[in-house]
Write a structure and sequence with these properties.
By secondary structure, the chain is mainly alpha-helical. The protein has nine helices and four strands, in the order αααααααββααββ. Strand 1 and strand 2 form a beta hairpin. The longest helix is centred in the C-terminal third of the chain and has 25 residues. The mean pLDDT is 88.
Length: 269
C-alpha cells in the first residue's frame, strides 16, 4: 500500500475513533452505522461520479465502491425508501431567540433585545414564543428556555435574554447535522481547488503550549468565538429575505443552508 493511502487510513481512524466513542456512549452499535455508510457511498457515487453529467450506472457504482452489482441494487432500493432530506428543523427555542433578536418590536432603542414581561398579552415573552410555536407548545418552550442558559428572570419578573444561542449539547443528531456535517461539506467542496478559490477553512493550533495556560486559552477562545459568531449571525440576519426562493451559490447550485462554524479543540494523545 502506498504511503499516502496509509496516512489517509490513519487520518480516517482519527475521525472515526471519537465518533465511535460518541455513538457507543449512546448505545449505538456498528451494524446501523455500516448500513448508513453503504448508503452514503452509493448515493455519492451515483450523484457525483457518473459520466457526461449523468448519474453513475450500477456497474460504475459497483466498480467505485467495491460492492457487487446486486448489493448496489439493493442499496439503491433502500435509498429510495429513505431518501436523504434536510429533516432537522430549527429548535423552537432557537427560533424564539432569533425572532427576539430580529424583530424590532422586541428590541430597545439601541437594537438590543428588551426584557419582556412573562405575559400573556402583546409584547410579552409569551406572545414572542407564540409567534414561533403553537399555543399548546408555548409553555413547554418557555420552560425549556428558562431551564437553559439562554434566558433568566430578573428581580422585577421580566424575562431577559442572556445568550443568543440555544444549547443543543444533549441532542446528538442535531450536533452531527449542525456541526460536523457542514465541516465535511466544506472539505468536500474545497478538494481539488486552490486555497484562494475554495470556501474559507482555517485552523490555528500548536504542539508546544504551556500546560499552565490551557485554562487561559479556553477562556479566550470561548469569549472571542462567541463574539465572532454573533457578529456573523448579525450579517446573516441582515441579508435574510421573507420569500421562499431557493438559495443559489455562485455556480447556480441550490443550497439548504449557509453559515460559518467555529470551534476550539484539544486532541488527546
Amino acid at each position: 500500500m502506498r504511503d499516502t493511502d496509509t496516512r489517509l487510513l490513519y487520518a480516517l481512524r482519527s475521525i472515526f475513533r471519537p465518533l465511535a466513542n460518541i455513538l457507543l456512549k449512546n448505545r449505538i452499535g456498528i451494524a446501523p452505522i455500516i448500513e448508513q455508510l453503504k448508503l452514503a457511498f452509493v448515493e455519492a457515487a451515483r450523484a457525483n461520479h457518473g459520466k457526461s453529467g449523468k448519474p453513475a450506472t450500477i456497474n460504475r457504482i459497483a466498480q467505485l465502491t467495491g460492492m457487487s452489482r446486486q448489493h448496489v441494487s439493493q442499496i439503491l432500493e433502500q435509498a429510495k425508501r429513505s431518501p436523504m432530506v434536510e429533516s432537522m428543523p430549527l429548535p423552537l427555542e432557537a427560533g424564539v431567540l432569533g425572532t427576539w433578536f430580529g424583530n424590532d418590536k422586541y428590541l430597545d432603542d439601541v437594537g438590543l433585545p428588551k426584557a419582556l414581561p412573562l405575559g400573556p398579552g402583546p409584547g410579552t415573552f409569551r406572545s414572542l414564543v407564540e409567534e414561533c410555536a403553537d399555543a399548546e407548545e408555548a409553555q413547554n418552550t418557555v420552560d425549556s428556555l428558562l431551564k437553559s442558559s439562554a434566558v433568566e428572570v430578573r428581580p422585577d419578573g421580566k424575562i431577559m435574554m442572556t445568550n443568543r444561542a440555544f444549547p443543543i449539547c444533549d441532542d446528538l443528531p442535531r450536533i452531527l447535522a449542525v456541526w460536523l456535517s457542514p465541516l465535511c461539506s466544506t472539505i468536500n467542496k474545497n478538494w481539488g481547488h486552490r486555497v484562494d478559490e475554495g470556501l474559507t477553512l482555517r485552523v490555528a493550533h500548536t504542539r508546544r503550549l504551556d500546560s499552565r495556560k490551557i485554562a487561559v486559552v479556553r477562556r479566550i477562545s470561548r469569549e472571542r468565538i462567541s463574539h465572532f459568531v454573533e457578529e456573523i449571525d448579525d450579517v446573516l440576519c441582515s441579508y435574510e429575505v421573507d420569500n421562499q426562493e431557493p438559495i443559489l451559490d455562485t455556480d447556480g447550485n441550490e443550497l439548504s443552508r449557509v453559515g460559518v462554524g467555529v470551534y476550539y479543540f484539544e486532541m488527546e494523545k
